Amino acid sequence: MQLPMAYPPVRGYASQSERAIPTRRSPIGGIRAAATASACLLMVPGLVVATAAPAAAQPACTVEYADLRIVVVVEPQALVTLVISATNPTLACLEVQAADAYVDGIRYAVSELGAIPNAYLYLDLSHAGLLGYDSNLDPTALLAAEVVAGPGGPGFDHVAGFATNVGNYVATEEGFLPDPEATLLGQLLYTSQFFDWSKHFDVGDHLPAVHAALVGAGFPPDIGALVDTGHNGWGGPDRPTEVSTSTDLNTYVDESRLDRRPHRGAWCNQVGAGLGERPVASPAPGIDAYAWIRPSGESDGVADPAAAPDPDRPYLQPRDWCDPEYLEPVGGLVVTNARPGAPHFGHWFPEQFAELVEHAHPPVS
């Protein structure tokens, strides 16, 4: 399948002068994006994208792909989880925080992986649904800076940028809701139930705020970003084709938004999800690439809460968020929107993959 060289820039992030984000030399500049299989994960000709947990210091693909530039997305969402869990910690979270296990582990991964000449590291910083609030974003940026450049850290030169939309995701562009601070009969759109007082409706709203927070915490101004667009297409018959005409705030937002989930906390094996923008290098200033980082068609977790343990990984437990019948305690009784029949995390889930292709936007031909 032939892919276009580029897609239109993300709204509000297209003008370098407006966002004051300098052009940077990235590992993927000038490379045409394509969806090609590799043993490490995904990607562009001349580039491999891999994900790594803290214990993975030297991925096997660095040997096989020694002549390629390898992008490593380090530990999806762990730093953000440490920050958010501090407001309502469980005993397990308190033990992890006291031991600095995640901080030390991620620092070790960044130190070891960043020393590989052809490896380019991106710290995963969750998504706008969690970091769309200053109370979460600012301490996350400070923690990321501590991990990279604090005592024992390898320094900012070991990190090429940050990744967003990997574990959970928002729309690349909410085309019918271009201004979070617009009003409907005097009511601000961002105060709607779905956006829950977050002004970060989409990637275009979110990335400049993350960039500013990271630079304020000490990261260099030329830090780049990867955007996972593998699950946020939301095409198909339920995709809005025009802005709502309702005068009720929540109805207006719900009928206009491209993100078709019941709420932005829903993440596991989502019904209605679709492939998003194709992987492409440098789609807009400040963005190194759109990439399909989280493998499409891999299960996020088993749907049956009474499922037998995974024989290969018995430590994997069923997750409430993956149970289609579970009622999430987020803003009232809201369903998980999880697809039934899902196998354990990481296993192939053909029904989910088929829906991602069916609801792809742009469509897959």
Explain this structure to me?
With 365 residues, this protein is an alpha/beta fold. It has a single domain, classed as 1, 4-beta cellobiohydrolase (TIM Barrel). 25% of the residues lie in helices and 14% in strands. It contains ten helices and 13 strands. The strands form four sheets. The protein has a seven-stranded mixed sheet with strand order 3-4-5-6-9-11-10, covered by helices on one side. Helix 3 (78-85) packs across helix 7 and helix 7 (134-149) crosses helix 8 (203-216). It starts with 15 loop residues before the first helix and ends in a 7-residue tail after the last helix.
Note the topology.
Blueprint: H1 16-19, E1 36-37, E2 42-43, E3 47-52, H2 61-64, E4 69-74, H3 78-85, H4 91-99, H5 101-114, E5 119-124, H6 128-131, H7 134-149, E6 161-164, E7 183-184, E8 187-188, H8 203-216, E9 224-228, H9 249-256, E10 280-284, E11 287-291, E12 327-329, E13 333-335, H10 350-358
Parallel strand pairs: 3-4, 4-5, 5-6, 6-9, 9-11
Antiparallel strand pairs: 1-2, 7-8, 10-11, 12-13
